[in-house]
Amino acid sequence: MEIRQTEYFLAVVDNQGVSGAATALGISEPTVSQALRTLERELGIPLFHRVGRGMVPTAAGRRLIGPARQLLRDVRMVGQLQGSGGGLAGRLDILAFPATVSGQLTDLLAEFCVAHPSVPVRLGLLDAESEVDSMIAEGHCEFVVCTPRTAGDRLTQVEIGEQEYVVVYPAGTDVPAEPIPLSDLPPVPMTLASARYTIANEISTAMPRGSGGPPVAAITDHPETRLAMVRAGMGGTVMERAVAETAGDAVDVYTASPRFAYPLVIAFDEATLSPAGQAFVAIIRGAL
C-alpha cells in the first residue's frame, strides 16, 4: 500500500466520493478512481460501496481507516524529525465539544506547547456523542474530551474537571432566587438543545412540559447558539456554566436544582498513542 494510495483512500472516505476527493486533492477524478481500483485489486477486497453518486466504506474499508491514518501520521512525523534535530515531532490531535474547551484543558495544552514547541496542536470539533470511540479508532484524533458515559469502556479516561449546567436568562429577567428548581421554572420562554444530546435529555426530563412548564421558544440542533439566543432576548436556557459566564453582564446565571454536573475526561487509546500523544499523557498525569 503506497503513501499516495493511502492519501487517496482517506480523501474518498472524508469526502464521501471520488469527486470530492479529487477536488480536495487538486487532481483529476480518473486519477483517484484508478488509484482506488489498483488498491482494491492489490488487497483483493472491495473498500467502498458505490451509493448513487457517493461512496461509503465497506466493512473492510472501515477497518482500514485507522491504520491508514496512522500510516500518514507516522510519515508526517518522520518528515518532521528530519528537520527537528531529533526533538519530538508529529502533531497532537484532539476533538472536543466547544463547551469543553476551557479551564483545565487549556492549561494542559499550554503546558504541552511550552514543553514541545515543535509539535503543533489541532483542536477539532466533535460532532456527536456517539462518535468518541470511532473517531479514535479510525485515526481522526488521539484524544477526545467528553463525559465518561460517552467515552465507553474501551478507552482510558483521565478526569480533568467538571461540567456544570446552569439556568441562564437575559440580564434583568425577574426570576426567583437561586437555586432555581427545574421542576418549577418561571413562565419565561426557554430555548432547549435537541434530544440528540444525552445530557439535554436528562435536563428536559427534570423540566415540566405543557401547561405545567414554561413555553418553549426554540429547540436547536446547534447548542452553541443558545447563548446568542438568550442575549438576543428570546428567553432562557439551560447550558454549560463555563460558556454562560463568557457573556458577562449580558445574562444572569443561576444554579439549577437539582444540580446537574458531570465529570469531564480526556479519553484515549494507550495502545496506539504516538510519541506526541505519550508526551501529552505524561503532562496530564503529572498535573492531576
UniProtKB/TrEMBL annotation:
Keywords per UniProt: DNA-binding, Transcription, Transcription regulation
Highest taxon, organism lineage: Bacteria
InterPro entries, per the entry: HTH-type_LysR_regulators (IPR050950), LysR_HTH_N (IPR000847), LysR_subst-bd (IPR005119), WH-like_DNA-bd_sf (IPR036388), WH_DNA-bd_sf (IPR036390)
Xref: Gene3D superfamilies: 3.40.190.290, Winged helix-like DNA-binding domain superfamily/Winged helix DNA-binding domain
Gene Ontology cellular component list: cytosol
Name of the protein in its database record: Putative LysR family transcriptional regulator
GO-annotated molecular function: DNA binding; DNA-binding transcription factor activity
Family according to the record: Belongs to the LysR transcriptional regulatory family.
Pfam families from the UniProt entry: HTH_1 (PF00126), LysR_substrate (PF03466)
